[in-house]
Design brief:
The chain is an all-alpha fold. It has five helices and no strands.
Amino acid sequence: MKPNNLKKAITRVLIGAPIGLAISTVITIIISLFRNDGLYHAVVPELVNDLGTEMNAVLVQALLSMLYGAAYAGASVIWELEWSLLRQTLTHLCICSLATFPTAYFMRWMEHSVKGAGIYFGIFFAIYLIIWLSMYSKMKRRVAIINRKVEQIK
């Protein structure tokens, strides 16, 4: 990776970490609101059981949320490299999968079984595909607009 791209990746990692923590916190607030029992549910009960105390669970979840945000933010640099779209997509997908699956498994955001892993990956890939297709469509429209403007200039 070129030094400029490495600098971008490091900058994005440092920005992505607190964003990951913020998103995680917002998600726990939304989940708590939907449970509608008047309590704030910072972590899943199974994680508290695994780590012994709620505080341990919250600290580990905060750390992993920061790592998760950092991985996604750093991986965004891949879209700026002069690689084929296939290589960019597969590399980005691998990095995001490697950041997401262990986090989801450890944090008990998914059932610990083959079925749970299958459901998790199905949902993950469906969401990834929807986001990828929407971004691809958006970029394709931008290119068409630029091409029309270039044709008008000629």
